[in-house]
Amino acid sequence: MPSTPNADNKKVYKYFLLTFCISWTLWSPFYFSEEVNEIWVLPGAWGPTIAALLLTFLDKGKEGVRILLRKILIWKLPIKYYLFAIFGILAIGVLSILIYRLIGGYFPDFGLILEGMGLPQGQYLTALLLSPLFFILNTLLGGPIAEELGWRGYAQTHLQKILSPNLSGLSIGLIWAIWHLPLILFLPKAVGNIPVLAYIPLMTTMGVLFSWMYNRTRGSVLLAILMHGGMNFTLGFLGADIFKDQNLLLLFIALIILLALVLATKNKANYEEGKP
Fold it and tell me: Against a cut of 0.90, is the pTM above it?
């Protein structure tokens, strides 16, 4: 039986409520002790995917879960989407640094990146060679693989049956930002030490970019995972130190918004759900 807007509304509400309950409960150790290890971030990060799998199973059984999981296997796509997913946000970060320098700002201390990677000063080649490893580890062990089956695979699919793809992306982006609130308050380095008033518009806008990628790649959760990895890599290695300059951070966010406005004109839900 085809879903109705009212049915999809209920699914979305249940999904967001369950996701927050799971994640914020699993992150509760941060609320009571400043000594809690960062490893506690990961259990809560799986909240979006746990909620998606549970609700899908209750609604459509094992076959529904299989259809949802198959979105991770949608990989036969043009190389340009892989390049954008992995390097797109990083390219915006680098571009913002170059523009900032041209308009009278200064180049940041890139030695901070080496420090964050635990490398001695001057070891830029080593950092470059290790970057793919850091990207892979972050993607496989962090938020990208833990979250995207939920945010994009489930929530984006149902929400854009009610709203346009762009409004769906904005809505999920805003909720996604608020979902990070416990980390922003109790473990800010987990979100790149980006101030909350900058983090919320940044992640809200990122929701449009993820919506565009998801729809352009026929609902590929794999590409969403890679794009999330690229975003985390940029915000983790640049955001935590390089973007401490608020003017540079604002320029970066402005470029992300500009990119979102451009891609929003081409954001359409034109794939068939469950077809890898």
Answer: yes
